[in-house]
Amino acid sequence: GIFPWYGPGEPILWWSPSPRAVFDPLTFKPSKSLKKFQRKHQYKVTINQATEHVIQLCSSTRPADETWLNEEMQAAYIQLSNLGHCHSVEVWHDNTLVGGLYGIS
């Protein structure tokens, strides 16, 4: 997809890597090996159940002053989620969020 990429004091620029990946969760068919892995490791995948938490955890992987996903951008994505435009996929292990992704539709 396309996403903002910028640093402190810089204008918000849009980054669009090539090739881009687009997944439709309604038509996604996991491979046999992924299904086997999921059965063995007891992971649970949900959609739009913890969008705000996913956004917050994605921003916490780096110090706040070194990531474009600062508090202002988090608030914007959360507002878009509340309006039904930001969606997430969450991965849980033992009821703990261990992975996820989010995007705008």
From TrEMBL:
Q: Spell out the coiled coil positions from the record.
A: none
MF (Gene Ontology): leucyl-tRNA--protein transferase activity
Q: Which PANTHER family match?
A: LEUCYL/PHENYLALANYL-TRNA--PROTEIN TRANSFERASE, LEUCYL_PHENYLALANYL-TRNA--PROTEIN TRANSFERASE
Record bears the keyword Cytoplasm: yes
- Keyword 4Fe-4S, does the record have it? no
What top-level branch of life does the organism fall under? Bacteria
* GO biological process, alphabetically ordered: protein catabolic process
Q: What is the lineage of its organism?
A: Bacteria, Pseudomonadati, Pseudomonadota, Gammaproteobacteria, Vibrionales
What keywords would UniProt list here? Acyltransferase, Cytoplasm, Transferase
Give me the Gene Ontology terms describing cellular component.
cytoplasm
Provide the protein name.
Leucyl/phenylalanyl-tRNA--protein transferase
Instruction: State the InterPro entries in the record.
Output: Acyl_CoA_acyltransferase (IPR016181), Leu/Phe-tRNA_Trfase (IPR004616), Leu/Phe-tRNA_Trfase_C (IPR042203)
Q: Which organism is it from?
A: Vibrio parahaemolyticus
